[in-house]
Amino acid sequence: MSVELSTEAMKRLRQLHPDGKGIFTSDLSVNEFLLVRQAGFRPLGLVLGVSIYHVGTQFRRWYANQELDVLSQAMYRARELAMTRMQAEAEVLGADGIVGVRLKVELKEWGTHVAEFSAIGTAVKAEDGGNWRNHAGKPFTSDLSGQDFWTLLQAGYAPSGMVMGTCVYHVAHQNLGAVVKNLGRNAELPAFTQGLYTARELAMERMQAEAAALKAEGIVGVQLLQHNHSWSGHVTEFFALGTAVRPIRDDHTIPTPQLVLGLDS
């Protein structure tokens, strides 16, 4: 996907660190900064991507569980735009990757269905060279903390990219008979259980598909989040997010935890 950055963004990026001069910016804590440096990566600057997106509406059946695929696509597309623009800024800086990425959604007062999707992180470059970019040839992205990033590298793994899956789902309303039947009783609501289970599974499955496309070995730090945003009480989004990882070498072995953490055995 071709991304054109604004004049203001290009001006800010030129003032950063791609040529080894200037002052870098970073949202890493002091401890995270030191560990990223110890891992052999130099911060170049904060990079960000933003998308103001109008999320439309979709008809749903009152008494049926169903995915609202139009809304699922909108939520995914808006986040993808923000992530892609953040990666484009990292490309301008000549970065090998982006660490400590935060991906946020904030509803705006401009309209009921308008939200700001933003991605921000610290672009970094390996000091010893090497090929740290992912299978798609893009700077890797990771939402791991500086400490977890350092530990991952010590264990012989590298991040390939943040992967995500989303599912906006309508959970069926109970009919009057079911409401009366369960009145005052402890009872599982099978339709609700199955609906929420299915929605989570769809989000997880889509996240795993993104990791497979990056030729990753697995996903670490997975978060499975639920958001209602501005929809009705029976419509919810399940959002799965994690960092896909790959072994640095084909013949790598995982060291003992004591060695990874630098502890005496």
From TrEMBL:
SUPFAM superfamilies: YbjQ-like. It comes from the Bacteria. Coiled coil: none annotated. Belongs to the UPF0145 family. This is Heavy metal-binding domain-containing protein. The lineage of its organism: Bacteria, Bacillati, Actinomycetota, Actinomycetes, Pseudonocardiales.
